[in-house]
Amino acid sequence: MKLQIAFDLMSANDALDAAAEIYDIIDIIEVGTPMIVREGMVPVRMLKKSYPDTTVLADVKIVDGGDIESADAFHAGADIVTVLAAAADETIKGVVSTAVRYGKKTMVDMIGISDIQKRAEELDALGVDYICVHTAVDVQGKRESPYHDLSLLLPVLKNSKAAVAGGVNMAAIPVLKDLDPEIVVAGSALTGQSDIRRAVLEMQDAIKGGKTYGNS
Ligand SMILES: O=C(CO)[C@H](O)[C@H](O)COP(=O)(O)O
Which atom belonging to ligand 1 lies closest to the Cα atom of 59? Predict the structure, then answer.
């Protein structure tokens, strides 16, 4: 399992400072949707320029204009761009073909989708790289965690790989290790800690099963 940290509620400059602490121990840095709403592609550009070897995901959550909007994010340096599963297949295809053109990857966000297996089968056939089950921030604690959706998603995937997001914390890691998605996304559980490097190290150690990660 790869660990993706979501930088949501911080400025681009704070994201750069946080990245400096963890770029060597994190698998993917996500520029979260709230940061993109506030600052556009600036943080994507800044992070990729400072850490060219780190995978940067732009959580644009595209819902229309798949080609144009994903091209902007890839052009800014994103390695992975997100599109909503609720978007039209034409939009998804636009993101996929643009990602291929740039040599980059597509993640589809299943937020709000009720028939997980049906939509996942369709998306898998469209050639997306990752399908992410996601419990929205606004419904976390009120509806089911994304882990049930993950157990529905995994058996139907033929080509795409699974990701999971929405309130993931240390307590969830044993459950997620059993399910074994390709990517685990954690935001507030990591960025809310005063020592972000320690928080990421602890989660990576829990994921990788022992004190194997980093040296601090
Ligand atoms: O995409 C998001 C919100 O739409 C968040 O980045 C994602 O849910 C991870 O954050 P958290 O772990 O705090 O839920």
Answer: 1
pLDDT digits 0-9 by tens, 101-140:
999 999 999 999 999 999 999 999 999 999 999 998 888 7
Task: Tell me whether residue 125 is in a domain.
Answer: yes
Expressed as residue numbers, the domain containing 11 is: 2-208
Question: Predicted ipTM?
Answer: 0.97
Q: Which residues of 98-135 are buried (b: 16+ CB within 10 A; e: fewer)?
A: bbeebebbbbbbbbebeebeebbeebbeeebbbbbbbb
CATH at 137 = 3.20.20.70
pTM of the model: 0.95
**Residue 209: predicted pLDDT:** 80
In degrees, to the nearest 5, what angle opens at C-alpha 82 toward C-alphas 76 and 87?
125
Q: Which amino acid is at 167?
A: G
Domain count, the chain: 1
- Residue 186 alpha carbon to ligand 1 centre in Å: 7
Question: Is residue 214 a part of any domain in this protein?
Answer: no
